[in-house]
Design brief:
Blueprint lengths: L6 H26 L3 H26 L3 H29 L7
Helix pairs in contact: 1-2, 2-3
Length: 100
């Protein structure tokens, strides 16, 4: 059953617009973040906002595969954040070899 009219359609349009603006704001933070940790958190936020965008678009397009893509994106974002956080911790403690 595809959504073609009514208040749900307007809610979907509004949600997609707000998520798009939020992604642009978070991308600005990724590019201008003062520290590496700020940039990583902003990149994580971009991934989770993209998940919300995919889920909302899935309702609009009546296509369930976008939900699967959102779940995979969330898992990859979480694991990527853990890996980078662990790397930063190892660099600060002096365990990692850093070639600068």
């Amino acid at each position: 059953m595809a959504v073609t009219e009514g208040p749900l359609l307007w809610a979907i349009y509004f949600t997609l617009a707000i998520l798009s603006l939020s992604i642009l704001g978070a991308l600005f933070r990724v590019l201008s973040g003062p520290t590496l940790a700020d940039r990583i958190v902003a990149l994580d936020l971009v991934a989770y906002l993209a998940m919300g965008f995919l889920a909302t678009y899935s309702v609009y397009a009546d296509e369930e595969t976008f939900i699967d893509a959102a779940l995979v994106l969330g898992l990859l974002a979480f694991l990527g954040t853990l890996a980078v956080a662990r790397y930063i911790e190892r660099v600060r403690s002096g365990e990692a070899l850093v070639d600068l």
